[in-house]
TrEMBL record, chain A:
<feature type="binding site" description="covalent">
    <location>
        <position position="219"/>
    </location>
    <ligand>
        <name>heme c 2</name>
    </ligand>
</feature>
<dbReference type="InterPro" id="IPR004678">
    <property type="entry name" value="Cyt_c_oxidase_cbb3_su3"/>
</dbReference>
<keyword id="KW-1003">Cell membrane</keyword>
<keyword id="KW-1133">Transmembrane helix</keyword>
<keyword id="KW-0679">Respiratory chain</keyword>
<feature type="binding site" description="axial binding residue">
    <location>
        <position position="173"/>
    </location>
    <ligand>
        <name>heme c 2</name>
    </ligand>
</feature>
<feature type="binding site" description="axial binding residue">
    <location>
        <position position="261"/>
    </location>
    <ligand>
        <name>heme c 1</name>
    </ligand>
</feature>
<feature type="domain" description="Cytochrome c">
    <location>
        <begin position="203"/>
        <end position="284"/>
    </location>
</feature>
<feature type="binding site" description="axial binding residue">
    <location>
        <position position="125"/>
    </location>
    <ligand>
        <name>heme c 1</name>
    </ligand>
</feature>
<feature type="transmembrane region" description="Helical">
    <location>
        <begin position="32"/>
        <end position="54"/>
    </location>
</feature>
<dbReference type="GO" id="GO:0020037">
    <property type="term" value="F:heme binding"/>
</dbReference>
<comment type="subunit">
    <text>Component of the cbb3-type cytochrome c oxidase at least composed of FixN, FixO, FixQ and FixP.</text>
</comment>
<comment type="pathway">
    <text>Energy metabolism; oxidative phosphorylation.</text>
</comment>
<keyword id="KW-0560">Oxidoreductase</keyword>
<dbReference type="InterPro" id="IPR009056">
    <property type="entry name" value="Cyt_c-like_dom"/>
</dbReference>
<feature type="binding site" description="axial binding residue">
    <location>
        <position position="220"/>
    </location>
    <ligand>
        <name>heme c 2</name>
    </ligand>
</feature>
<keyword id="KW-0375">Hydrogen ion transport</keyword>
């Protein structure tokens, strides 16, 4: 162009536009940049046609490739199920004790059981299976109904005192408030407390032992070690479901609280119950 | 009342008027670099051979690490998250060594740049090396500068088509080889090469080759100098690294100007004339398509081919070499002051010469001492410090590690006999490619013992356990302390892991929690 103006300082031609003596330099874009720019536009068109993109009134365009992230998730889940398949089949075929002898299977069952535990069991037993008053701690080595793999499985399957399951574990401690006197309750509480610790008034122990022999040995045994047949707790150890000490023991003698645990097999199925049993068994107290 | 004389014409222009409209882009000016020959060209051939040799061959080197580790000298095993470099094996948590090397590379670049300018750009940058390689192919097929320009300007004949097709085909093959060599660093090279040709390699291998073929072909063959000028950030950053004592490729106009193609005639007319005969040899060889005589500029990658070209011309003319040379700005400025009599006149090259025509001894020449100055000392010191630090850390690093995670939920468990139990995840890292038996011992915590879940190890204060080569083993350990030994709600003790064979050991301080009521 004949009227092309070259900027003196930069040596670059100007666009010919001038504002108050200021001219605009003409620094055009490199061709590859412009081509890249157009390619991105073309790419965007292709992409938004191939994949779901353009918003419509009620939904968005589906895209020509028929891609859907929901379908992706569905496939991923199916693939995950398929991958779990051989473990699940093995768990179904084997008993809980057998599962424990197979390292890979045990690891799988512990992981699956931990997940199921978080959803179904933490409400009562706590997120670390540590329990609380009235809800047993599953980490320790004290088991009311037995801590072997198959006993744990039995408890989870049919529950405790769960009326709608005919095979549920059943036992009931009588309310001794109606059977023996308040003094006798104080005596027997002192005796029981003395088995694992100190008591306030040692003179109560002797008569308490007599009350115990008359009323309690049937379930808790001569040596007060309990009986797993009836879920009768060991009264000589350091673990107390409803609290330690004479007061707590007396309250439990007078009008016992009796926990209920649902039967889980109907809701979770045989496989999940086995996985839960393996997980609970692995917490450190399993026998 | 309307008065049309009050209407004035506004002095304005549209910003994009049809008559002044210009294209939005500037077409690339094609560059046809002429083949140079000389010392710097020979040096560049050497650097090219070495760098390409390293790139293509390293993946094929072997390094025996025994039966439990790969025997490829340099291998990035992404699947197993291990990086092998000759005698060094790096686990992901040791990646700081790589970060340290990158910091060293950065400081090293500062050092090189402050000493000898953009030497990285001119000699060692992959872009430069591959463009050089692509130009070798281009010259071999289409001929040197003039032949290529003629071919490019000429009509599309069968010959031109044949030359172009074969050139681009070879470029693509080089691109594919570049991408192909890259992936060998990520898998066992001999196995992968077999898989590649039988079509059984992982899709990511083919995708990587395709992407690197495309980028190599585009950057090295099609875009070339545009990558350096428009895309690369280094020219901007490296410019900040230069100072007046850095060596850069310099046109010494204090002896070259005024340039003339008819020196004798001009000289006869009594005017002064410089050494530059304006032959444009320096421009013809420039792969960036610039004229070094315009001074130092962003585009210049200091490949020094113009020095070779000019030295050749100077030799023919019987003049001293070095009209274009590596020079520092301070030397250049001193010589300019000399040639312009302190800046008072235009350049008069006779001022830098004696009566017999040799350079006056006032002319400043580069001396190696200039490389050693506070700035480069600082860079060298920093570089060596980081290097020594990394080396020390590498030589003294643990190959047997022990990490312990204390169970938080529950923190402790009361057992039926009243004793307290805490759970720990003990992680044993056997970081050498050989199986080892690690002895784990408890230190402190009187009366306590430990059991390992899932193992038939009897309870005790020590147990030995085999750990697979180059693997992490996680153990669930229960520590139990009798009630009468507990004297605080939180007691500290140590896990100690020891390899009895190599005497390597590591300790981890852990806490043992008990309920407040326990004592």
């Amino acid at each position: 162009m004949s009227d092309e103006h070259i900027d003196e300082v930069s040596g670059v031609s100007t666009t010919g536009h001038e504002w108050d003596g200021i001219r605009e330099l003409n620094n055009p874009l490199p061709r590859w940049w412009v081509i890249t720019f157009y390619v991105t536009i073309a790419w965007a068109l292709v992409y938004t046609t191939a994949y779901p993109a353009w918003p419509m009134l009620t939904s968005a365009t589906k895209g020509m490739l028929g891609y859907s992230s929901r379908k992706d998730v569905k496939n991923d889940l199916a693939a995950a199920e398929a991958a779990k398949g051989k473990y699940v089949a093995a768990i179904q075929a084997k008993s809980v004790s057998e599962i424990l002898t197979d390292d890979a299977l045990r690891e799988f069952a512990v992981a699956a059981g931990a997940a199921a535990f978080k959803v179904n069991c933490t409400q009562c037993h706590g997120s670390g299976a540590q329990g609380s008053k009235g809800f047993p701690n599953l980490n320790d080595d004290d088991w009311l109904w037995g801590g072997s793999p198959d006993q744990i499985k039995q408890t989870i399957t049919h529950g405790l005192r769960f009326a709608s399951d005919p095979d549920t574990r059943l036992s009931e401690m009588p309310a001794f408030g109606d059977i023996i006197t308040a003094d006798q309750i104080a005596q027997v509480s002192a005796y029981v407390a003395s088995l694992s610790g100190k008591v306030r008034d040692a003179s109560l122990i002797q008569p308490g032992a007599k009350v115990f022999a008359e009323n309690c040995v049937a379930c808790h045994g001569d040596n007060a070690k309990g009986n797993r047949e009836f879920g009768a707790p060991d009264l000589t150890d350091a673990i107390w479901l409803y609290g330690s000490g004479e007061t707590a023991i007396a309250a439990q003698v007078r009008a016992p609280k009796q926990g209920v645990m649902p039967a889980w097999v109907g809701r979770l199925g045989e496989i999940k119950v086995k996985e839960l049993a393996v997980y609970v068994h692995s917490l450190g107290g399993g026998e | 009342m309307r008065d049309k004389t009050q209407l004035t014409r506004l002095e304005t222009e549209t910003v994009n008027a049809a008559k002044t409209r210009k294209p939005l882009y500037a077409a690339r000016q094609k560059i046809f670099p002429k083949r140079a020959s000389g010392n710097f060209r020979r040096f560049k051939w050497l650097v090219m051979t070495i760098t390409l040799g390293i790139y293509y061959l390293t993946a094929w080197l072997h390094w025996d690490r025994g039966p439990f580790a790969p025997d490829q000298a340099v291998l990035l095993d992404l699947t197993n998250r291990r990086f092998y470099f000759f005698f060094i094996e790096i686990w992901p948590q040791e990646f700081f060594y790589v970060a340290g090397l990158l910091v060293m590379a950065g400081v090293g670049l500062f050092l090189i740049t402050s000493a000898v300018g953009r030497a990285w750009c001119g000699y060692a940058c992959p872009q430069t090396v591959w463009v050089d390689l692509f130009l070798v192919v281009e010259r071999a097929i289409e001929g040197d500068r003039n032949a290529r320009m003629k071919l490019d300007a000429g009509p599309w004949t069968a010959r031109k088509l044949m030359l172009r097709v074969s050139k681009h085909a070879i470029w693509l093959v080089i691109g594919a080889a570049t991408g192909g060599a890259w992936i060998f660093y990520f898998a066992d090279a001999p196995t992968l090469v077999g898989e590649l040709f039988t079509g059984t390699a992982a899709p990511v291998a083919y995708i990587t080759i395709a992407v690197l073929t495309a980028t190599t072909y585009t950057f090295g063959g099609l875009m070339r100098e545009q990558v350096c000028t428009y895309m690369c950030p280094w020219p901007r950053i490296q410019a900040a690294m230069l100072d007046e004592n850095s060596l850069t490729v310099t046109y010494n106009d204090w002896r070259g100007e005024p340039r003339s193609r008819h020196a004798k005639k001009v000289q006869a007319s009594g005017q002064s004339v410089g050494d530059c005969v304006d032959c444009n040899a320096c421009v013809a060889v420039c792969p960036m398509g610039i004229d070094i005589r315009d001074g130092q500029q962003l585009e210049c990658i200091t490949c020094a081919l113009c020095i070779d070209a000019c030295d050749g011309v100077m030799d023919k003319l019987g003049k001293e070499r070095g009209l274009i040379s590596y020079a520092t700005l301070s030397d250049y400025n001193a010589n300019m002051m000399l040639a312009t009599a302190g800046g008072s006149s235009s350049i008069n090259p006779s001022l830098v010469r004696t009566a017999v025509g040799t350079f006056s001894d006032q002319v400043a020449h580069f001396h190696i001492r200039k490389i050693f100055r506070p700035r480069t000392y600082v860079y060298m010191g920093l570089w060596s410090l980081i290097g020594l630090g990394l080396l020390y850390s590498l030589l003294t690093r643990d190959r047997l590690e022990l990490n312990v995670l204390h169970d938080r939920n529950p923190q402790f468990v009361t057992l039926s006999d009243g004793s307290i139990r805490n759970g720990y995840s003990v992680k044993l890292l056997n970081m050498i490619p050989e199986p080892r038996t690690i002895v784990v011992t408890m230190q402190g915590l009187e009366g306590a013992d430990m059991v390992v879940v899932g193992d038939d190890i009897p309870a005790g204060r020590s147990f030995a356990i085999p750990v697979e080569p180059d693997r992490l083993k996680t153990l669930k350990v229960f520590v139990r302390q009798p009630a009468d030994q507990i004297h605080a709600p939180a007691q500290t003790f140590k896990f100690r892991a020891e390899d009895k064979a190599s005497f390597e050991s590591n300790e981890y301080a852990a806490t043992f929690n008990a309920p407040e009521a326990a004592k």
